[in-house]
């Protein structure tokens, strides 16, 4: 393990901003833990249906404030996308070549998930599984794919939006919400908010890449301003306090995104910028950096398979004689939350198995001048540099 840590640390370029990778890892971890905590599969007369503890215990809404971290992921995505696009132009790479390299790591793991679950769905239906159960499970697995689609679209548009001011997409979200809630018009136009809302942190990330978000004042402004706006909209404008979707609720802050989701995301982006300096100090420790680096190498694999891991544990529990507390029971008491926390290590173990099976589909081909970490026959990483230094 020491040799693995040493090799990863020595393979990292000296000019790499490790804090950026840490923010991405924290964002992915937040989404995974959030889904595991607020998503329940309740067994009812042989049928599994989805439920949420936030529906029965709204006092736990602050949990969603901690684990709904998508804005941070889009912030980092805009930052990395803008920098890589500029570097590609400097090298003389064409747009198609740059975009292909960016999208392969997103779309290849997604294609594998869809293929595996198409086979699983067909097999379970052929064996006589309840259709409502299969529909619920497929919904859990496929629902995160909207994120990949939006992120891929914004990545493809990076050369166009790299200098777009975040206020423009923010204004679109504001107008749509006024039309939807203030004028009580049909909600069809609200789906415009799906790209517009996430374009706000993506544009902030591009501005960060240009050096326009330097200084702690910017971080504090975004954090305090976003928090104040979120509080005001929840208290006086009737928006839900939860930052995730809750089955049965009339309004969701994420489906599609509302103005609250955007201003809350601004607060998260401010917090992320304030964390950069502490993270850079912490990640001088090779062991901690190795954990962050390994997480980033498989970020999409972890994101795409975490719901499958939870489903696998749930199904195994049923086969072994469920229903079991915190796994198949209704999430309507604080006791369910304690029981669910006890199941998290089992979910993590199942996710580790999925990671071992499917992480290879996220590998990228080495670029010229890049440091490549590969495993040798003993399973330890070896490093080599390809081509000319950039």
Notes on the protein architecture:
This protein is mostly helical. The protein has one domain (2-385). 66% of the residues lie in helices and 5% in strands. It has 16 helices and 4 strands. A hairpin with a 5-residue loop joins strand 3 (371-375) and strand 4 (381-385). It is globular. The two termini are 31 Å apart. 35% of the residues are buried. Mean pLDDT is 88; it is low at 365-390.
Order of helices and strands: HHEEHHHHHHHHHHHHHHEE
Through-space gap between termini: 31 Å
How would you characterize the largest beta sheet? 2 strands, antiparallel
* Relative strand content: 5-15%
Mean pLDDT: 88
Percent of residues in helices: 55-70%
Shape estimate: globular
Number of helices: 16
Question: Which strand order do you get reading across the main beta sheet?
Answer: 1-2
Radius of gyration (Å)? 22 Å
* Class by SSE composition: mainly alpha
Number of discrete domains? 1
Q: Total strand count, please?
A: 4
Low-pLDDT residue intervals, each spanning 5 or more residues: 365-390
Please provide a brief summary of the model.
This protein is mainly α.
What features would you highlight for this structure?
single chain, 390 residues, mainly alpha, two-stranded antiparallel sheet, two-stranded antiparallel ribbon, 4 strands, globular, disordered C terminus
Task: Summarize the SSE layout with pairings.
Blueprint: H1 2-11, H2 18-38, E1 40-44, E2 47-51, H3 53-56, H4 62-67, H5 70-91, H6 95-126, H7 131-142, H8 145-156, H9 158-161, H10 167-182, H11 193-209, H12 216-236, H13 259-282, H14 286-297, H15 299-319, H16 334-358, E3 371-375, E4 381-385
Antiparallel strand pairs: 1-2, 3-4
């Amino acid at each position: 393990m020491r040799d693995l840590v040493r090799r990863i640390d020595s393979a990292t370029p000296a000019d790499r901003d490790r804090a950026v990778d840490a923010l991405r890892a924290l964002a992915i971890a937040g989404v995974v833990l959030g889904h595991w905590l607020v998503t329940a599969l309740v067994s009812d007369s042989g049928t599994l249906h989805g439920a949420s503890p936030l529906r029965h215990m709204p006092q736990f809404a602050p949990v969603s404030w901690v684990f709904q971290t998508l804005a941070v992921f889009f912030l980092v995505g805009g930052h990395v996308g803008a920098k890589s696009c500029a570097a590609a132009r400097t090298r003389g790479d064409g747009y198609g070549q740059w975009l292909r390299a960016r999208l392969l790591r997103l779309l290849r793991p997604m294609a594998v998930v869809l293929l595996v679950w198409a086979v699983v769905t067909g097999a379970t239906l052929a064996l006589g599984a309840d259709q409502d159960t299969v529909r619920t499970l497929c919904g859990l697995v496929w629902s995160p794919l909207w994120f990949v689609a939006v992120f891929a679209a914004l990545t493809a548009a990076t050369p166009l939006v790299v200098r777009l001011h975040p206020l423009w997409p923010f204004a679109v979200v504001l107008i749509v919400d006024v039309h939807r809630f203030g004028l009580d018009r049909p909600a069809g136009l609200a789906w415009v908010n799906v790209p517009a809302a996430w374009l706000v942190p993506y544009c902030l990330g591009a501005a960060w890449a240009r050096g326009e978000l330097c200084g702690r004042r910017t971080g504090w402004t975004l954090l305090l301003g976003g928090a104040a706006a979120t509080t005001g909209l929840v208290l006086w404008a009737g928006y839900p306090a939860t930052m995730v979707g809750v089955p049965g609720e009339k309004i969701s802050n994420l489906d599609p995104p509302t103005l609250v989701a955007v201003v809350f995301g601004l607060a998260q982006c401010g917090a992320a910028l304030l964390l950069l300096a502490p993270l850079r100090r912490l990640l001088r420790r090779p062991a901690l950096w190795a954990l962050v680096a390994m997480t980033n190498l498989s970020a999409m694999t972890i994101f795409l398979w975490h719901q499958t891991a939870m489903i696998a544990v749930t199904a195994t529990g049923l086969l072994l004689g469920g229903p079991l507390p915190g796994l198949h029971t209704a999430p309507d008491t604080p006791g369910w939350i304690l029981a669910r926390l006890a199941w998290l290590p089992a979910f993590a173990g199942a996710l580790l198995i999925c990671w071992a099976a499917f992480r290879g589909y996220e590998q990228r081909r080495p670029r010229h001048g890049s440091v490549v970490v590969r495993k040798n026959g003993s399973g330890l990483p070896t490093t080599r540099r390809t081509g000319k230094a950039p």
